[in-house]
Every structure is written in C-alpha cells, then in structure tokens.
Amino acid sequence: MLSLWLLLLLNLSGLNMAHPGSHDEGAYFRSLASSRSVQEARQKLARCSNHIKRGELDARAAVRRAAILDSYRGISHSDSVSKSVRSSFSQAALSSSENPSCLLTPEATIGPFWVDGELIRSNVTDGEPGIPLILDGEFIDIHTCEPVEDVFWEIWNCNATGSYSGVQDFGHHHGDDDSNLDKMYLRGIQRTDKDGAAQFTTIFPGHYAGRATHIHVLAHVGATILPNQTVTGGHVAHIGQLFFDQDLIAAVESTAHYKTNNARITPNINDGIFNDVNSASSYDPILSYTRLGHSLEDGILAWATMGIDVSASYKAESAASLTDHGGVAHPYRWSAHVPGASNILMGVVGLGLVFWVARSFRQFCVRSA
Question: Which residues form the signal peptide (predicted)?
C-alpha cells in the first residue's frame, strides 16, 4: 500500500517536471479548437474553398506542380509511375481543390527545435541522405480568400535518423555536442510569389520517440530581407505542422538510412498533436503527394494549401539562433535540464507530500501494532 501511494505521488509531482517539449501543445490545441476565433476562421476558410475552385489559382497550382514533376521526373513517364491513395498525375489531382485547404491551428509553443536566423534558400538538404522531398505550399488569406504574397515561409524537420540540426538536442543524438549548433541541414526560408506559393527541396523526415513524422511550419508576415540572406522584423502569423499518409511513412521507413533508426515509430493516430487537432478541428493536416519517378527512392512531390490569418501574431521562442559566427544556444528557453521556478516548486511540494504520507503511514502502523 505504501509503495502504491509513493508511486502515485511521485507521478503527480513529476507532471510539471517533464521536458517542455513533451507536448503541452496538445492541451492548447484542444482549447484553441473550440475558441470563437478559430471557429470563425474555419467558417471563412470553408468559403474560401469554393473561391479557390472558381478562380484561376487552382488551375495555376496544378500547372505549377505538373511543371515540378516534369523537371524532376527525368526519364520516368507519368503513365508508368505507381500511384497511391493521395497520388495521381492528372492536373486535376495536382490542384488545390483535391486537397482540402487546411487551417493549421497555431501551437501553444513552437517546440524545442526552432532556430531563428535561418537562411533564405530553397534547397535545404545539405547532403543529408534520405528520400528526396519537393514541398510545394501556397498560403491563402482566410479573410480575402486571395493568395498571400511575400510571406516568408520557414520549415524545419529532422533527418532520416530523427535528429535536428542547429540545436543542442538533449533528447536525441547530440547530448551537449556544441558542433551541432553550427549545422543548418533541413532548415530554411522561402518567400511566396504572387500565387502565395513557394517550394523547398528537403528530404522525407525520419522519426523520433513520442512524435509522428512531421514537418514544422512557420509564416513570417511583414519581414524584410537582410544582406546576409536572413529575415528580420514583421510578425509570426502562423505556427503549425504538416503530416504524412501512414502508408507512405511505412514505405519510407523500410528504405535505406531510415531503417537504421531504432527509435519506436509513433503512428499519426497516437500523436497528441495530430490526433487532437484532426478530430477536433475537422481539418486535413496530411500532405497530398505523388512519386517523382518509378521508385520511392526517386523522390516525392508533396503539397498543401494553408489558410492563415495574416493579422494574427504569435510568440515564437527559439532553442537557438544562427548568427554570422555560428549557432548560439538558448538553454533557458528550451532545455530538458533546466526546469523553471514553478517546476522546481511543484517538485518540492510533491516530494514533501511523499514524505508526509510515508511518515503518517509509519505512525499509523506503530499505533496499530
């Protein structure tokens, strides 16, 4: 009995001592999904769907994606390339209307792996091995249903073995290795064109314990370009994540580089962020995709239309900054080893309760003897 009480109270005392990236985002998602502002935004986005279909934006998106396929397909022919549930080479399937526009609900926290000061560049692979991924995104203003030009779209994702660049990745592979702070693989920023569109060349992300396979998304609005090809100013109008079809994830994970990752795979339905938002918000966070060639190793083209509120402004705390002199960690923002004052207080209170219960139980046993 005593051991049961001790275990219970220790668990309670440890709730607030968890890694700050252990996804309090999920609770925020659930509360935000029912908020009035999100409900209104969702209604506006639903109206935008018909607007996109009627306008030329949908047709231009299909032409753009077909051109991407042609440029990367090489000797492959569209009729001979295998297709998936979300895959077809017809221009209709490459349009925006085939993949429902998705309002990507902002997170409570940006996560423990965002690095501010990343470079404007479209190819972010930096030689990382894995399945090539061409990511095509377009941003729609939910108030006007028109494309948003000059959004600085930022992405970051882990590599084939689940590691992020640019951070002191305490929970994964790097420990206190400072050299990882200077790495920039699978991170970058692109500026949207008149169609609200931009593209990245990255690799299909791997996985790490506790999270489904995903790509992080951030939208800077009103920013300006510095001479060193970074951005400054403006505000963050959107923080979100993009996910992948589970069958596609399974296929990728069976290929070279990915299958060396020994971390347990978390499926979409077991991911706190994916599951909560997908069920509560009725939006589609899964990228549509098609293969670039005959085999999966030839690469993947994936796309999404993202509706955003350009007037929204969210706080984005970084785990590190990329400077002209290399990466600089922010250990007191996102660190598994530095709990905040409230965390420490709750831990002390929890331990105090444990000792009090143990002492009371001992006294009870003495009196009963």
Answer: 1-18
Query: CA angle, corner 338, sides to 231 and 274, nearest 5?
Result: 60
Domains of the chain plus CATH, in order, are: 32-72+95-322 (2.60.130.10)
105 vs 46: CA distance, rounded Å: 15
| pTM for the full predicted model | 0.76
The pLDDT score that the predictor gives to residue 58 is 81
Task: State the Cα angle at 217 between 162 and 288, rounded to 5°.
Answer: 85
Contact 116, 315 (CB under 8 A): no
- What's the longest Cα–Cα distance across the chain? 86
Q: Where are the alpha helices (DSSP H) in the chain?
A: 2-13, 25-33, 36-54, 56-73, 246-253, 272-281, 341-368
Q: What is the pLDDT of residues 43-74, one digit of tens each?
A: 666 677 667 666 678 888 889 999 998 888 76
- Please state, in angstroms and rounded to a whole number, the distance separating the CA atoms of residues 100 and 293: 25
Give kind and range of the element (H or E) at residue 303: strand 300-308
Rounded to whole angstroms, the Cα distance separating 121 from 274 reads 28
| pLDDT single digits (tens) 87-130 | 444 555 576 554 444 444 555 457 789 999 999 999 999 999 99
Amino acid making up residue 326: G
Instruction: Determine contact, residues 268/243, Cβ cutoff 8 Å.
Output: yes
Q: What angle do CA 149, 221, 194 make, to 5 degrees?
A: 5
Chain CA centroid to CA 324, Å: 26
3-state secondary structure of 212: coil
What values do phi and psi take at 110, rounded to 5? -80, -10
How far apart CA 163 and CA 331 sit, in angstroms, is 18
